[in-house]
Amino acid sequence: MDISVVAVGREDDSPVEEPLRVAVLADRLGYREVWAGEGPTWDSFVLATAIGAATRQATLTAGPVPVSVRDPLTVVRGAASTAAVTGRPVGVALGTSSKRVVEGVHGRPRTRPAATLEESAATVRALMDSVPGEPIVPGSGFPRRLPPPGGMLTVAAFGERAVATAVAHADRMLLDLVSPEQVRVLRARMLAAAERAGRTPPRLAAWLPAAVDPEPESLRQILRSVVGYLTVPGYSDVFVDAGFAEVVELAAKGADPDTLLRALPPRAAGTVGLVGDAGTVRARVDAYAEAGLDEIALVPATAGDPAGERTLTALRPR
């Protein structure tokens, strides 16, 4: 099981420079890859460049970036620019994001998300494989001057069409906030899609919240990230099966996030992540590996554990 680290700006009262602190610590502890997450606060390519300047060896992946917001050239140009400045391989991750982000934050229409993901992934794949001297975009008349960024193409997927896109174009398929049971189902979906397409399946990774020996504020931070998934098909059933049917029903009735956060018991934090003492978390890592996950991308809780130091130290590569 490979373990990487996600440095992402949380949209709460966390320090805005916190992702850099997480990345520097991860690099010092020997994690081989750091993801620079995209969000309303941080541009992922700027964050990845800053991380590259502040660290020594970690490979960088920017994103997932929303395909309804960034065109393929912008994505690959950003990754190639970051690679040129940092001297590191830089990968990109693509996703459809949510209507709340695409339309509510960026003011762009989120129409045909599955089709847009397919179109973007196909073009990004071709652009990432092109070399200096070729047109930067076919027919543009502008030559490519920077080398390819050198990292992996990752596609965030859950539904059938997104999984097919990941199989067709990506080196790695990404899941988010999943249980081992969901990993098993989604891996089977990925393998079936690969068999139909006659392709080798990509690696399977998941962003998972993590907190070793968590403080109460750490649990609350993780639960805040869980709240948005309580009404999502495929996720709501997981929380019902875990014993949180009343909270799922409350979410379905339109309860606001603060109400749902108060209703979720602390133990819910471990439903789709790595939470508990070191032994419990290690056993949970084994459960994800047994379910078919190739890589865990740790999203360390930082409330009550600045930069996620306790968690990242406990789970560092051996």
From TrEMBL:
Recite the UniProt keywords alphabetically.
Oxidoreductase
**Where does the Luciferase-like domain start and stop, copy by copy?**
12-294
Molecular function, one GO term = oxidoreductase activity
Pfam families reported for this sequence: Bac_luciferase
Tell me where on the tree of life, at the top rank, the source sits: Bacteria
Give its E.C. classification number: 1.-.-.-
What NCBIfam families has UniProt attached to this entry?
F420_Rv3093c (TIGR03841)
- What is the name attached to this protein's record? LLM class F420-dependent oxidoreductase
Q: Which organism is it from?
A: Streptomyces olindensis
Source lineage: Bacteria, Bacillati, Actinomycetota, Actinomycetes, Kitasatosporales
